[in-house]
Amino acid sequence: MDGLLTLLLWLAALFLVSIYVSWRAGRLDRLHARVDLARAALDGALVRRAAVALELATSQLLDPATSLVLATAAHAARTADAEGREFAESDLSRALRAVVDQPGFHEALGDRVGPLLEELDTAAQKVAFARRFYNDAASATRIARRRILARVLPLAGHAPMPEFFEIDDTPPALG
């Protein structure tokens, strides 16, 4: 009778441990899915910002040199590979600030560029929010993967460790 009780206690403990491990693995899976969704949203926001910047560059509202600088930065951001993406996006942010923050920019263009600048402001804000959301998701996933259980057992499977996306996303002063 004592042997049967000991066996049942061991089986109950094993069952509870397996439930906990399964829950942790499911949580890691959900965190990785959240990172993937956040990355897709960030990529969409970055592409939209580059498209609006390219639209501004080709709008005939800017002088040719400024248009060329902005178009080059927007094109580089859209076509950058994974390694150079952060640098290209930061360069686009700096180019946008250099164009929009020029002395007399708003006065020279007046009402001709209003809707385009509103769209650019919205796109720049979405990039900042999407990057913050993605980095928060990556941070939560990295913390969960550093726990002892996730390191000892392959709970994350073959999913790569999410990396932070760090860019200069300070928006231009459009107001």
From TrEMBL:
Task: Report what the protein is called.
Answer: LemA protein
Q: Which InterPro entries match?
A: LemA-like_dom_sf (IPR023353)
Q: Which organism is it from?
A: Actinocorallia herbida
